[in-house]
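INFO batch 0412 | record 1 of 1 | parsing
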Amino acid sequence: MVEATAGNARFFRRSGPYPLAVVAGVAGGIADERDLIFEGVAPLQTAGPNEVSFLDNRRYASALGRTLAGAVIVHPDMAGRVPVRTVAIVTTDPYAAWARVAALFYPVPPASPGIHPSAIVAEGAIVDPSAEIGPLSVIEAGAEIGPNSRIGPCALIGSGVIVGRDCRIGAHVSLSHAILGARVCVYPGARVGQEGFGFASTTDGFVSVPQLGRAILEDDVEVGANTTIDRGSSRDTVIGAGSRLDNLVQIGHNVILGRCCVIVAQVGISGSTVLDDFVRVGGQAGMAGHLRIGQGAEIGAQAGVISDVAPGAKILGSPAQPMKDFFRQIATLKKLTKREG
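INFO prediction complete | emitting tokens
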């Protein structure tokens, strides 16, 4: 039986160890001064005295009292429930603190500078000497690969594409007609910048409309595995800085996402729809084209959005409507069903 553990050494390289003061500093938390050294991170249930854990969801509060972790990152409200043998690292945002501490012990591996012998780099492509070009990847003429970026195996970087500094491009990714900013991560199998779904209907059939825009991925964007982002038809498709796209997302041509949008798996956004900053979209939701989704709006899972959404609105259902109205209708239907029964 394979032992379940966080950061298994077979797959993850660990750094450290680190003293408590360093861990607490990275977490942005407050902790008692103790001469302790930590070697890694682990869940509350399995952590040992030399490991750091965290509690963010009160549902797991019972595990806190039984943990053997050397330190636990907790909210001030839970600090009093930390066992005496365990150090409390107190912060108002335990989950973000946990993310930083986990990254301390398990940093993203740096690029290994160089071009693999099996890679094809066309004449006229610009590859920074600090970049890593993986096996069987193809860098076409006019493409630019920035400092410390990693291009995974079998990836295709199309002619004219710009990949900024510190980017990670996964295996079998294809990038065409695309400009990527700094620290962009595109996970395996994603397709960015391919032609959008654009055609004119005539009595004789369909006439394809040339897709003449680009796909712009701003700084710190993450694109999940097997996600597709069409390039624009007449204007650019833009994914705003800091946005996160899950696996299997479809972004149509001319779509514009603002800063720090979250798009969960299997969402489809039709062409020319605009999402303002900090919009969140639940899994399998679909949006018609040419809509405006206001800043901070939240769209529930499997919602069908066919009209504009006001800033800060929370909607659900198909067709989508305010969440309160949706749940009120569900409750009414349940009552009617019981009466008929």
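INFO post-check: The two ends are 51 Å apart (CA to CA).
INFO record closed
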